[in-house]
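This section describes the prediction task in plain terms. A model, or a person checking by hand, is given the sequence of a single protein chain and must write out its three-dimensional structure as a string of C-alpha cells. No templates, partner chains or ligands are provided. The sample shown here is typical of the held-out split.
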Amino acid sequence: MLFSRKKQRLPAFYTDVERTALEAHITKYFGNIAAVIHDIDSSDINVDIAVIAPTSERNFFTLVTIGMGAYRMERPREMSKFEIIPEYAELLICLPPDWDMQGILKGATHDKNCYWPVRLLRDTAHIPAQDNILIDQGSFFSTERPYADNTKLCGVLAAGPDNVFDEVSWDTEKHFDVCVMPGGKEVNFFQLVPLYRDEIEYLSLHAGTSNEEEAIFYDYLYTRGTVTLENAVFSMIVDITRKSIMDYIDA
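The expected answer:
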C-alpha cells in the first residue's frame, strides 16, 4: 500500500538522546549490536545499519536501520483521522547465519550477492523522504531486475517482525516492535521480506481487498512462516533460492 503526503523540511536526524534510546531498544529486544555500517550520504536522512550477530537462540543475522525514524511520515489527507498509521519507522531484515557478513562489513559494495540487503534497507528507508510515500505494514515495492545474480528476488514487503522473534522464545513484551522515545514519539519497526515477481504481482491484484486471495497469501506468509530454512513452506529469514508462495497457492 502506497500513500503520498506533503513533503517536510530535510534533512532530518535523531538527537543524541533519541539515538541512544533507539539503540537501547534494539539491544534489549533484537540483540547486542556487534557492528554499525555507517551511512556516508546524509542528504535527507542518515541511515546507519546495526548488525546483530547470530546466537544459539536466534541463529540468524539481524540488520536494523538507525535513522529512518528521524523523519516524520505525515498522515495523507485522503485517510480517515481514525485510521492508525505510523509516523516514524525503522526497518530490519534477517539473514541466514552463513551470509557473507564479513564482505558487508568490509564495504564490498561491488559484490551484489552479499551486499544487496544493505542497499535494500537503505533504499527503502529513503522512500518516505525522497518519494513522498508512507511505509506501513503491508507496503510493498519492486524493481525491474533481481537484487543479485544469484537470486530472482526482486521485490519487498514490509511486515511485522513478531512472526520471527516470537517463535524463538525471547522477550515478547507487548509492543517490542515500537520504541517509545523520550517525549513520547513512537518509532515502529517493520521487517523487510524479499519477494519474487509473481508474488508482487499477486499482491498488486489482491492487497487491501480483504478477499480470500489476500488472506491465503498472508496465511503462507505469517501462519505457515518459520524461523528455520529446513523444510520451510516460507521463511521470514532471507532464502535466496526458496520456492515462491505462488507454487503453493496455484498447486
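For orientation: The longest strand covers residues 186-195.
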